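Milestone 3.1: sequence recovery, worked example.
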């Protein structure tokens, strides 16, 4: 039923929804193997109108499928649907969606009756506040524009995260932390995030490059996102750009491997066509400036950042810029405490397999729909129109993953680093009362104790800390055990 029936009947080349609908024989709704099974009472008319109404009523909006469907049906069946039920809320929603997605008007007079209907059912999917469309007598609460509008379903997981109000929790967490300690905590978390963002890409750049990228992350949210800003960030990320084309790609792109023998591409993900990049990136920019500001910051960050990484607009640097966009949205919306960067990249690095599976959950569904061939430079050229795959995708899993990463930084990383620095400061102060040594040696002493379970090794006692007496060494070990949390 619904989208499953429409995709099959009209042979739509679109990613199949993660959950499909069918009618069963039991009088109870249940789920099994990515199907939601409805009762015989839910069976719609076996028609375009019947399945479209069923989809909007029970399955929410799949904009990619709807746009492909409207292109297949043409205007007449949709106009007929509205003629048959001019005041019907589902007919008016379909009418609006047809004109909004295709940017084309149906040969219909403006609606004059019927209560204003919401285009997005907010009980099913996250929506914006919306504006009235008087022509259709609907309220357009779509969380984007025709150029870029991912959708996120409401799930118990996301409802739980939003209800926690993580931004307030983070501010409360740092409220009683002394300013100097908070500054050191923030500096460590920033360095950790910057280094991790390169490590995710398999890079181990020099410290200077890591610090430059860290400085860019500190400034996230201070500048509006536009093509010039993205290019500026790409220059920072790449560093040595002698062998990299800066700016939007001028040829195809993919993520994957090359055949060891022939060099032929073996894609895991195929990026948007370079001919579509200008429009797609403009869609991201407009989304960031408008719709993203009406959504929960973490949801908006997931939509923007994962949209960017699927589009993959640059030849290199996409992954780090994708994660920068997360910082940009959170900082711009005041989600993180001033001066504190959530080390999202570090959490992603710890959960790298889950991160890749989540990315592939969409990429792998796209691959069979993209017609491509290799080029003589062992790249890919895409042969069909794929832009809508990157405009309209289900970002639910991405939002759940990002929320869990942000929650871990608040629940674990931020308090753990603050606690560590408190313990370190206590250790230094108490050890200094026993033996006067420079910070360099105090730091080395602390690290040796951490690495050896709180005990100074025989080697350390005989070399770096040979000057300590047995009594002093025992006192220092006792201090270390006391300050550890």
């Amino acid at each position: 039923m619904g989208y499953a029936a429409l995709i099959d009947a009209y042979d739509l080349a679109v990613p199949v929804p993660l959950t499909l609908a069918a009618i069963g024989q039991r009088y109870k709704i249940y789920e099994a193997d990515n199907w939601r099974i409805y009762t015989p009472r839910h069976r719609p008319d076996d028609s375009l109108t019947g399945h479209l109404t069923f989809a909007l009523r029970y399955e929410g909006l799949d904009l990619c499928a709807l746009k492909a469907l409207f292109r297949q049906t043409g205007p007449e069946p949709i106009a007929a649907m509205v003629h048959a039920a001019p005041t019907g809320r589902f007919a008016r929603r379909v009418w609006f969606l047809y004109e909004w997605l295709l940017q084309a008007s149906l040969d219909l007079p403006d609606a004059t009756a019927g209560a204003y209907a919401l285009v997005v059912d907010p009980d099913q999917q996250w929506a914006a506040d919306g504006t009235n469309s008087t022509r259709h007598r609907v309220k357009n609460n779509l969380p984007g524009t025709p150029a870029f509008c991912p959708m996120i379903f409401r799930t118990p997981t996301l409802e739980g995260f939003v209800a926690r109000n993580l931004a307030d929790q983070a501010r409360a967490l740092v409220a009683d932390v002394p300013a100097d300690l908070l500054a050191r905590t923030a500096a460590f978390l920033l360095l950790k995030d910057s280094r991790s963002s390169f490590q995710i890409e398999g890079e181990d750049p020099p410290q200077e490059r890591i610090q430059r990228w860290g400085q860019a992350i500190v400034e996230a949210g201070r500048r509006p996102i536009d093509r010039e800003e993205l290019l500026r960030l790409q220059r920072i990320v790449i560093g040595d750009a002698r062998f990299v084309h800066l700016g939007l790609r001028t040829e195809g792109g993919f993520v994957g491997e090359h055949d060891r023998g022939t060099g032929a591409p073996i894609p895991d993900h195929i990026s948007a066509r370079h001919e579509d990049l200008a429009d797609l990136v403009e869609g991201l920019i407009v989304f960031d400036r408008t719709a993203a500001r009406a959504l929960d910051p973490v949801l908006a960050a997931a939509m923007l950042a994962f949209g960017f990484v699927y589009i993959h607009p640059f030849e290199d640097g996409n992954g780090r810029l994708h994660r920068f966009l997360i910082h940009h949205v959170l900082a711009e919306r005041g989600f993180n405490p001033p001066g504190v960067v959530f080390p999202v990249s570090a959490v992603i690095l710890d959960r790298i397999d889950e991160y890749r599976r989540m990315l592939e959950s969409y990429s792998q569904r796209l691959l069979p729909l993209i017609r491509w061939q290799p080029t003589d430079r062992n790249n890919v050229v895409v042969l069909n129109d794929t832009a809508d795959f990157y405009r309209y995708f289900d970002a639910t899993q991405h939002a759940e993953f990002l929320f869990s990463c942000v929650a871990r930084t608040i629940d674990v990383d931020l308090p753990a680093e603050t606690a560590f620095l408190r313990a370190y400061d206590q250790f230094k102060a108490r050890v200094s009362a026993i033996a006067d040594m420079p910070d360099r040696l105090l730091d080395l002493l602390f690290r040796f104790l951490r690495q050896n379970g709180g005990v100074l090794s025989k080697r350390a006692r005989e070399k770096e800390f040979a000057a300590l007496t047995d009594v002093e060494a025992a006192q220092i070990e006792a201090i270390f055990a006391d300050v550890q949390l």
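The longest helix spans residues 396-432. The mean pLDDT is 93.
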